[in-house]
Amino acid sequence: FDADAAAIVGAAMDGKVKPLKSLGRLEVLAGRLAGIQRTAAPHVDSPAVVICAADHGLAAGGVSAYPQEVTGLMLQGFASGTSAVGVLARQSGARLLVADLGVIAPPQLRPGDHPVLDRRVRSTGTADSSTGPAMTLEEARQAVAHGIGLVEDLVADGVDLVALGEMGIGNTATASALTAALLGREPARLVGPGTGVQGEALARKVRKVEEVLARHADARDPWDVLARVGGLEIAALAGVVLGCAAHRVPVLLDGFITTSAALVAWRLAPTCTHTMIAGHLSPEPGHQVQLEALGLRPVLDLGMRLGEGSGAALAIPVLRSAVAVLREMGSFADLGLADEAPPA
Amino acid sequence: FDADAAAIVGAAMDGKVKPLKSLGRLEVLAGRLAGIQRTAAPHVDSPAVVICAADHGLAAGGVSAYPQEVTGLMLQGFASGTSAVGVLARQSGARLLVADLGVIAPPQLRPGDHPVLDRRVRSTGTADSSTGPAMTLEEARQAVAHGIGLVEDLVADGVDLVALGEMGIGNTATASALTAALLGREPARLVGPGTGVQGEALARKVRKVEEVLARHADARDPWDVLARVGGLEIAALAGVVLGCAAHRVPVLLDGFITTSAALVAWRLAPTCTHTMIAGHLSPEPGHQVQLEALGLRPVLDLGMRLGEGSGAALAIPVLRSAVAVLREMGSFADLGLADEAPPA
Fold first, then answer.
1. Which pLDDT band, with edges at 50, 70 and 90, does B334 fall under?
2. Are residues B172 and B25 in the same domain?
3. Nearest in space to B73 (alpha carbons), one of B82, B63, B60
4. Which residues of chain B from 318 to 337 reach within 8 Å of chain A, CB to CB?
5. C-beta atoms of A196 and B25 within 8 A
6. CATH number of domain containing B35
7. Into how many domains does chain B fold?
8. Given an 8 Å threshold on Cβ–Cβ distance, is A65 in contact with B343?
9. A36 & A53 share domain
10. Which B residues in the span 253-292 are in contact with A, Cβ-Cβ below 8 Å?
């Protein structure tokens, strides 16, 4: 993070024809983008939404309202352009990149569909983490490496902002277990409805997450936690975060799942939080806990709990606007009024 | 408001391939746009930001950090495209319409500048409302009529959403007095820093607003309050709100000033609240009070207190995205899965 670039942008914002700081978080976001990109001329000219998808053995334990086959069906929607995140990415002028890290029933693509990148580490998805490790350490490393590789390809292609997305039936349960393990919190405080479980089903989901935690209480370090708890798409997204940090690319978090990937990346490389921006706040109860641990404040708070990257995609226009204000808005100096900066 | 159209859109959103209600306020906003536009196919294809500007005699009492001449200077920025709201409207794909209702020093436009419409009701701005009426009842009616006329022109030109903006040095003081008078609240709870007054200057602003209220405590009705308290741009914006209600055009409120205009319109025609959407929440302390009175929840909360229409302009992409989800996202029926609607 380049504090000098951020300070230059802050001073430029102070010189714009307006009361000091009166554009609130738009000014803060412009400075943050500058610090991340290490330039006083930050840009959001070519954003991408990166979706990683995989299945979760834990889903067999009934933690989701949907069967595992739905993961592949949703990928079909990403490929055909009819998913929520597809619509929102188009609205935000962002390209969509979808990678399959281990979906049990991958979609049958048709001519004209967007591609789904094959980054399959385990074709069966993860194993059931409540009875054993979700994957091996080697597989976790491979998934993280795939995430880093996705960023390298995007950067080579000119992408200057990455929004995170995900798909994987059962992955709020996995994300809850990861978050509880990494932050030392009680699962009951973190587990929420996800796609819509409630009542007894929600209580069963909490118990499942507690089983996962108990099963892996002796995990040695963040890599070990990641491999034993899962999931494949979360590991890949942690890699995307690490890749963005390495390449000075702002990474826009979505909801509870992608933020669990951000927690993993943070525990592997603490300074990578400097590269993160929280796109929105999900009503999933653990999300606020995660964002507080990372020291992040969400841009939007619209009660969205769909995931896929939908909240992050919707936040992109706010970041674009922050940069546009910096680029295009007039300053007191332009008016020959350099001494007339406002009093407050 | 067409509750049937809103219900059809709500059902269509429920049928989209996602957990029920998981797009949160995007779904609510799509339904609200449908109800306002009285169609199950709501649209944000041609939005406009309408800025009304005028000067305030009350500003002579030292309620602002800036002299009155700044109103005209800011209009110059709107005309040249370098203002904050100009940048944000461009980002949101919205046209900008600027009307002068009574600016003391109107801008000298240059070739290539955007026009500033001459709707001047009083070339001197309002009179000092702490010592007498801001304007006559006839002038208030003329300003409101100008606002209605602006909407008629825009509607004829295909505009399908109007975001409100304003400019007028001293107008947070006027808006505080109007809000206090219309809602029966204490000025001290409503008056905030505006462009940046604090300490003794803020205390003086509160006293000024209290003087205005005391001076016009015998105002008979909302028209009388509007004429005696002012201001010209607020009256015109109240007219814009009324015009939008008459033409079924969604009207997106900005901050404290434009919402005071919405309060006036509501007191003149209570059902016009059905046409309103709150674009954002300003940190100006009275704004939340106003929105609660109108029963509105803001779309954005980014600490923006610049006014001009900046917060409303920034909210336009969220509304566009709500409509795009309705139009473009796939449904369970598309997949031949009409019975697979999710459980929650």
1. confident
2. no
3. B82
4. 318, 320-321, 324-325, 328-330, 334-335
5. no
6. 1.10.1610.10
7. 2
8. yes
9. no
10. 283
On whether both B242 and B255 belong to a single domain, the answer is: yes
Positions of A marked catalytic: 308
Q: Which region among A31-45, A244-258, A289-303, B55-69 has the lowest average model confidence (pLDDT)?
A: B55-69
B24 chain-A contacts, CB cut-off 8 A: 283, 302-305
Same domain, A189 and A206: yes
Q: Given a cut of 80, is residue B155 above it in pLDDT?
A: yes
CA distance B42 to B26: 13
| pLDDT tier at B179, thresholds 50, 70, 90 | very high
CB atoms within 10 A of CB B72: 20
The reported pLDDT for the residue numbered A344 is 41
CATH number of A177's domain: 3.40.50.10210
Q: Do A37 and A57 fall into the same domain?
A: no
What gap in Å lies between CA A147 and CA B60, rounded to an integer? Answer: 61
* Cβ atoms of B215 and B111 closer than 8 Å: no
Give the model's pLDDT for residue B338. 63
**Residue B151 shares a structural domain with residue B260:** yes
Provide the domain limits for residue B36. 3-42+326-340
The predicted-structure confidence for B79-116, as pLDDT tens digits, reads as follows 999 999 999 999 999 999 999 999 999 999 999 999 99
Same structural domain for residues A180 and A294?
Answer: yes
Q: Are residues A79 and A207 in the same domain?
A: yes
How high is the pLDDT of residue B193?
85
CA distances in angstroms from A160 to A43, A172, B49, listed in the order given: 7, 28, 30
B-chain CB neighbours of A198 within 8 Å are: 344
Amino acid B336: pLDDT: 76
Q: Alpha-carbon distance A234 to A243, whole Å?
A: 14
Q: Mean pLDDT in chain B? A: 95
